[in-house]
Amino acid sequence: MWYVSTRGIAPRVNFEGALFSGYASDGGLFMPEELPQLDKETLSQWSTLSYPGLVKELCTLFVGPELIPRDDLDDLIDRAFSRFRHKEVVHLSRLRNGLNVLELWHGVTYAFKDLSLCCTAQFLQYFLGKREKHVTVVVGTSGDTGSAAIESVQGAKNMDIIVLLPKGRCTKIQELQMTTVLKENVHVFEVEGNSDELDEPIKAVFADVAFVKKHHLMSLNSINWSRVLVQMAHHFFAYFRCAPSLDSHPLPPVEVVVPTGAAGNLAAGCIAQKMGLPIRLVVAVNRNDIIHRTVRRGDFSLSEAVKPTLASAMDMQVPYNMERIFWLLSGSDSQATRVLMEQFERTQSLKLPKELHSKVSYYPYTTEKGKGAATQLTQGLEVCCGPRRGSVTDTPGTASGR
Ligand SMILES: *Cc1c(COP(=O)(O)O)cnc(C)c1O
């Protein structure tokens, strides 16, 4: 399996190359050159697999046995999930009215990032051990990513991790999760300022290519392809547990609501959908609503500042994985994606071309059918979270490809 940059200029790489790179050298993100299409037989075979079983199948497809033989891969994935509290790793909980909740929080730090980071860290250690190399992971965090990244690499022989956290701005639990790990390869620093200010020195470090090379630095945020890959399993697992039956033709659709920050989990869903999984994706955002505006109006432009909310892991100004989604929905058109993203980088504002916008919002909640679905969704969420206080100011939006 080869990976190409969404901007089409950087040379293609294999899984190992994508794993160790953050951005491609042309500023794009790595995506599989071709997406395997899953036929009905494969889907039906996969439908009875456990969550780790699905991760193994997906990784076999996207890593390739020439890089990690299947036996090794199975060991790595089993080791990755060995410290999860739930025996299923991920559990689907059934509420009333056909609403289900995918419990992605049974990892050590309770963040859903545990799932993809544990696997990613295992892949990194596998290649580092084989090549006798060492890397230092540098992470800036408002909580979830830092705790989960530390948990995934603590004690690893060929990796060190440096975490910067904004003083007084993480929850107490997360601060303790980060500052109480006593392994020698874990280095945690508290810094003054908010998470935007914290991003600046980290960006500056990664912009210094020679420095990064010399010290073997890498990031572990969700621009990393390996994290997106593992997250695809969430969507397959949810689909197989929710779909009434796989005997009908076409297969029944399942709607997946994705709380979204950097759009990593959303990009994973879009890829799963392109591979033939009949899911409909609904994006949930908080007041940091750039994706909502993109879906509704094609308005992919930066807001003035990050608005702090209770869901701090979703307080993102730039959902960088949207680039992967734009590339997918434009039919892997890297030329078009490059023009769009470069314009966004220059002006921090982008109006999506009509055709791309229509693909992003293919099931608008402005139609009668859509309004029904929106009401059902809101009612479902009330069952889950209790009656809403405050007000919902706008109807939800969808994002998806056909
Ligand atoms: C990281 C995180 C998100 C955002 O996920 P993305 O895949 O980056 O959109 C949402 N909720 C929680 C709790 C998170 O930890």
UniProtKB/TrEMBL annotation:
What positions does the domain Tryptophan synthase beta chain-like PALP occupy? 106-332
GO MF annotations in UniProt:
lyase activity; pyridoxal phosphate binding
Q: Which cofactor does it need?
A: pyridoxal 5'-phosphate
**Which residues carry the post-translational modification N6-(pyridoxal phosphate)lysine, per the record?**
K113
Q: InterPro entries, from UniProt?
A: Thr_synth_N, Thr_synth_N_sf, Thr_synthase-like, Threonine_Synthase, TrpB-like_PALP, TrpB-like_PALP_sf
Q: Out of the domains of life, which is the source?
A: Eukaryota
Annotated Threonine synthase N-terminal domain ranges read 3-81
Q: Does the keyword Isomerase apply?
A: no
Could you list this entry's UniProt keywords, alphabetically sorted.
Answer: Lyase, Pyridoxal phosphate
> Per its database record, what is this protein's job?
Acts as a catabolic phospho-lyase on both gamma- and beta-phosphorylated substrates. Degrades O-phospho-threonine (PThr) to alpha-ketobutyrate, ammonia and phosphate.
Give the protein family: Belongs to the threonine synthase family.
Known NCBIfam families for this protein?
Answer: thrC (TIGR00260)
Name-wise, this protein is Threonine synthase-like 2
- Give the species this sequence originates from: Propithecus coquereli
State which gene encodes it: THNSL2
